[in-house]
Amino acid sequence: MSDKDRILIFDTTMRDGEQSPGASMTHKEKLDLAEILEAMGVDIIEAGFPNSSQGDFEAVSEIARRSKSATICGLSRATEKDIQRCGDAVRHAARPRIHTFISTSPVHMKHKLQMGPNAVLEAVGHSVSFARNLVDDVEWSPEDATRTEFDFLCKCIDAAITSGATTINVPDTVGYMHPEEYGALIRSLRETIPNSDKVIWSTHCHNDLGLAVANSIAGAQNGARQIECTINGLGERAGNAALEEVVMAFKVRGDSLPFETGIDTTRLARASQMVSRITGFPVQYNKAIVGKNAFAHESGIHQDGMLKNTETYEIMKPEDVGVSKSSLVMGKLSGRNAFRDKLKMLGYELDPDSLNEAFRRFKDLADKKKHVFDDDILALVDDQLSAMGE
Ligand code: KIV
Ligand code: ZN
What's the subunit arrangement here (predicted)? Predict the structure, then answer.
């Protein structure tokens, strides 16, 4: 038995991720991605927003039909039409969930909804009860929760729980929080609202200040047991908490973050590549966990350390996230040891003088050229050896 608390991973790449401008996915792409997410061990897949289009309705319905172990969830606003459509799509799943939401912050209620607090509160109770008549698993979200007045937020959440919500999500819709503050909010809500122990508390953090993952972790440290996130952190504006970062933070830092997920982390790189390919959004080179450079080393000092023991500069094994091995990239900062190692890999073992000469030529070339490829090194050594008549 593990002494760690289980965190449910709720993937919203196909809903909040797809809301990223230019990231829309076809029916087939959604089915393929859902298959990958389920195989990877995602607990809840938010497959779309069924009432937003016929296409999304069909994609969510088909994902629900094909699902095996994952809960399949759809998003709906707080109207009967939205909720019914969502229920009709997810009902094919072995484990269907309706996720319904309404804004609760003053700025959203006044300008977006043009509704007063009483009308919003009434809509919370009605929407959740309506959803509960369709499925047993209902998640409720107060949109812009983190800019909502605390007492009103508590009233709305209380109404949602009383009306049958089973998961309460606390969205930091505009990525405004910092970790201590977000963690404290989750804790105060849990401590203030009656029957808070009857529901699962969930985080949903946006990345406008680059704090989405840190805020999600702070939420877990304060009692949240579901984290909403997306592959590659895809999502509106600066995106959502990145699934791969949250999951690896728990795996690597289990000493001080006593949480575990059901994710098979060796599938992370593949999922990242797939989302990048489908959406056409490149993954930034230095992106944590799945970026091209996440396991690449160029400086001589680091390469030397890596050749002696990989723990000198790596806190996780590349294989653990599905990358076959670390790479020592040859460039102007590379050292002699890494160069010798590279030559060996390319099939050359030079005597000390030849190695010195080859290394000098390599440094000359690296000063002029941004990337020195294996072919460049092969050409350089062949040229040197033929000049020496070997
Ligand atoms: O960011 C947000 O508030 C959302 C909700 C719809 C959950 O995505
Ligand atoms: Zn969101």
Answer: Homodimer.
* Long-range CB contact pairs, 69-72, < 8 A, 24+: 69/38, 69/94, 69/95, 70/37, 70/38, 70/42, 70/43, 70/44, 70/45, 70/95, 71/43, 71/44, 71/45, 71/95, 71/96, 71/97, 71/137, 72/44, 72/45, 72/47, 72/96, 72/97
29 to 73, 355, 373: CA distances (angstroms): 17, 50, 34
CA-based nearest residue to 194, from 162, 172, 168, 165: 162
For residue 30, what are the CA distances in angstroms to 60, 63, 92, 134, 271? 9, 8, 16, 24, 12
Q: Which residues pair with 200 in a beta bridge?
A: 167
User: pTM of the predicted model, to two decimals?
Assistant: 0.95
Q: What's the token pair of residue 319? A: 């294989």
Sorted by sequence, the CB contacts under 8 Å of residue 76 that are 6+ apart come out as: 49, 50, 51, 82, 83, 85, 86, 98, 99, 100, 101, 131
Give the Cα separation of 243 and 271 in Å (integer).
10
Sign of CA dihedral 55, 59, 61, 65: positive
Ligand 1 atom index nearest CA of 169: 7
How many Cα atoms within 13 Å fall on the side-chain side of residue 132? Answer: 16
Q: Is 207 marked as binding a ligand?
A: no
Distance from the alpha carbon of residue 286 to the mean position of ligand 2, in angstroms: 24
This model of the complex carries an ipTM of 0.99
Residue 259 carries which side chain, given as an amino acid letter? Answer: F
**Which atom of ligand 1 is nearest the CA belonging to 145?**
3
206 annotated binding-site participant: yes
CA of 104 to the centre of ligand 2 (A): 14
* Residue 169 in marked binding region: no
Return the pLDDT at 390.
60
Decide if pLDDT at 338 tops 70.
yes
